[in-house]
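In response to reviewer comment 3 from the previous cycle, which asked for concrete evidence that the modeling workflow produces usable outputs, we include below a single protein chain processed end to end. The sequence was submitted unchanged, and the resulting structure tokens are shown without manual editing.
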Amino acid sequence: MKIGLVGGTFDPIHRGHVLLGVVARQQFDLDEIWFLPAGQPYFKEGKKVSPAQDRLAMTKRALDGLAWARVCDIELRREGRTYTCETVEELRARYPQHEFSFIFGADCLDQLDSWRSPERILAGARILAAGRGSGTDYDAMERKAAALMMRFGGQIRVMPFPALDVSSTLVRERMREGLDVSDLLPEAVAAYAERQGLYREEAPQEPAADAPATGTGDAIPPFTAVVFDMDGTLLDTEKLFIDAWEEAEGCVTPELEEALYAIIGVTRERSEEIIYERLGADYPYEERRIAVDEMFRRTRENGALPVKAGAAEILRTLWRKGYRLALASSTERELVIPELEAAGLLPYFDAVICGGDAARGKPAPDIFLKAAEALGTAPGRCLAVEDSRNGILSAHAAGMIPLMVPDLLPPDEEIAALAADICPDLPAAQTWIALHGK
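The workflow returned the following structure tokens.
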């Protein structure tokens, strides 16, 4: 495929960045445009740059609904300074089947000879240099491009581009002054920057990380992130799991049913311990688990994995309203990712924490604490949406605000007292968040 690359600090990404990809794709018949948020740009050293997770989150939201665009976080994953020559070489090594074109503004063309190893950039990617409207001296750009190709080799093409009165600096200045930026930013980007308090003179004060969440009826602390459980909360898999286990068993006993309900919301390792504790050391746990895993695999591949009513709607709404979103599941990553992908829910998450990512599973707070860390948000500013007892205990212990959407078992008095509220389903939870969110 022919891939166009648009790199930048994206602090924030604005309509001009997106238009750059649109025009380049049309003029040079590119298949896809990849947007690359910079990691640690050497030319920004000494200047304040928003955290990487915020710039990545805004970039994802800016490209929402654009089938030809994707986010590439290759530079964010690299430690140390970010150099374009290294990015090009890494992309060529990873994707030898693709042809790459780096899309730059006219100012970058003027500075190219001062960049690190421009010959390495041009050896791995064509450069498309965008002008700045009808006032651009395109003849001068062509002469500059010719001189650079003579010196460094490769191919540089000049690209006509409309004049736009927009820059990330202008956006930041207007947001600091409380002015409207809807003409400069995609709606979801503006909502994210506003909700997360980016580009204000003073950042919103974070509550203590270990501040306990309050129970039903108490004042709800302000929250800017929402952390979801998966099984039983977003995916209707808890009953599927129990039915599959009982089918593999061939018969149902009260002891088996109690044991299965007891392992809801805990890690696989803890599930094994509970089953042996309740059903005896000679119980064929591995045999049953393999049968259940195989049933889930077939169900997922057949596209029949049940999604909770309202799951996609609540994630899409919160994502576009600027909340940071994370998943905190006790299930193993090798199962979580394909199940979220099959359900069409994975793109909405800014972070995914799974069983094995934390030292202890639910009801310990570790998974939720890891989720808050990954989001760059204090636990006290995170709402946790959970369906199970173990999940509520875990979220509360982490200092989050627990919101319960019960699945198979109703909450007892202890859990009801710990939860900020109890909603019958996800649409009701979405309404609750709209009423209590910042």
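The CA atoms of residues 180 and 233 lie 37 Å apart. We consider this sufficient to address the reviewer's concern, and the full set will be provided in the supplementary archive.
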